[in-house]
Amino acid sequence: MNDLDQLKELLFGAEKEALDSIAHRVERREVRTVDVADILPEAIHQSYKKDSELVESLTQPVGECLQHAFRDDPQTYGDALYPVMGPAIRKLISQSLRTFTEQINTAVEHSLTPKGLKWRWQASRAGVPFGEYILQKSMLYRVEQAYLISRENGLLVGHVHHEASKIKDSDAVSAMFTAIQDFVKESFSPDRTGRLESADMGEFTLWAMHGPHALLVCVIRGMPPKSLRAELSAVLERIHFRYGEAIREYKGDTSTIPDVEVELERCLQFEAHEQVDKKRGPPISMVILLLLLLSVAVFLGVRDWNYAQQLGKLDAALAATPGVHVTAIERNGGDFTVRGLQDPLAADVIDIAEGIDIPADRMNVAMQPFQSLQPEILAARTARMFAKPETVKFEVSGTTLVVSGDASWAWQRQLQSRFSALPGIESINLDALTAGDRQEFADEVAGQGERKFFFQRGVSFAEGDEVALSEYGEQLRDLKADAEDFGYSLSVTAKGHTDASGDSAINSALAQGRAIRAADVLAIAGVDATIIRQPDSMFAQGAPVEDTSKRFVQIDLQLRPLTEIP
After folding, report:
1. Are residues 298 and 314 in the same domain?
2. 14-23 pLDDT, tens per residue?
3. What is the domain range of residue 403?
4. What is the DSSP string of 87-137?
5. Which of 354, 369, 384 finishes a domain?
6. Which of 105, 203, 367, 526 is 20 to 30 Å from 394 by CA-CA measure?
7. Cα 94 to Cα 222: distance, rounded to the nearest angstrom
8. Same structural domain for residues 210 and 119?
9. Assessment of whether the complete model's pTM goes beyond 0.85
10. 365-382: string of b/e by CB count within 10 Å (b at 16+)?
11. What is Dmax (Cα atoms) for the chain?
12. Domain count, the chain
């Protein structure tokens, strides 16, 4: 190694070692796997807390993995879910049909009865204590014995029984049942999937509940209900939940499965006895009759209460209706009779009743017509009498009719001239009422004012202006006629103008002449115009320059409201 290499080693040796280490970790797959495995749990945790993207990404692949696993090895997953799946299914699809019966002293109940004497004789013949014999006869069913047998090798795992039960060799019983089970599979199930679930032996019934690693065989006295099988299956599921792995590995050593008899003793708690009627109740027909009478009384009481409520609602609704005055309201069962006065413009009594859910066929109405002076009815009567426009609103305050909104001037004149004919109305207030057509007319007149008509020389009109003035006069004649309809008087004035080509006296006379000339043209059209004479001082003297733009007559219009409306 030369000096240059030594210098490089001193300057960059540490960095080179770090780069070589990184390259080693990146290039070797097993190292990368260890690194990813180290941070993968934390990365998944952080991604899950951040948002739902991780869940959405894993949902489909994890779901497909579970589907493949269940399809390829259903037995393993079935065995794993067995302890929890059974209780959940029974909780959803079945009802528990347990019967809690009264424990009776059968010996006392039957000792002096014919049945009791017969059972006492039969018990003495059988050599059985009378109390035990009575218990057997009065019992519907009882689990006498319970065997837990390994499915792997047929060995007896546990056995419990009632004290009164006659017990044979439990191991022999277990071996015999296993042999019978194998015989059924070999003889009647070619694919060896069949299994023995029940068998009848005289007064006993044998039930077998099958689990993944063991089967529970119960000896039952009497006729057990179908719901008992679900209860016994729950016991087997509980045993699998606690001892499933130990049962699967069981070789005959009971110490590997401690306290399993405690679980099996749950099976011995299932029993039911005949119920004894100690007190005879009243006949069922009497009970039904009393219930029917009580139901009818409750029905009639509730119906009568509902009718009384409807009567109160009807009375209140009629009292709140303008134009209706009730003198009497009566109820006969579910029918209502209403008497009183009703304005023709008021709401109909039948409609009011139907509005509170009282049918029309339960209403008898005897109302006399009258004219109501209530504000709402006065407003409705005014609207009907004067064909109220939609833009107008009527209100009655005391004896004053208050009108607001907008209506034509002709309609307003009709209202003002005829409102005194309304009963209960003494004055009218139109402060909030406007006339849009009257204002439009005033705007039209304002647009027609200050019109100018020019002269060529002297009092001779410029070409076309005399004809224009004549046509204008016809328009003014129509405006004057319309003005009277809108309560106005229209005045027309004519004012002459000249240029500065003459002295003030001549120009004043010329201006007057031009105004007279224009008034004559308007008079021919049927319009009277007032001539306004301007003082001589208004015509300033100047250079004798002719300016035709200043040779005109100006027509002005003025509207004045009429002092009174005819």
Report:
1. yes
2. 777 777 777 7
3. 375-434
4. HHHHHHH------------HHHHHTTSHHHHHHHHHHHHHT--HHHHHHHH
5. 369
6. 367
7. 23
8. yes
9. no
10. eebeeeebebbbbbbbbb
11. 169
12. 5
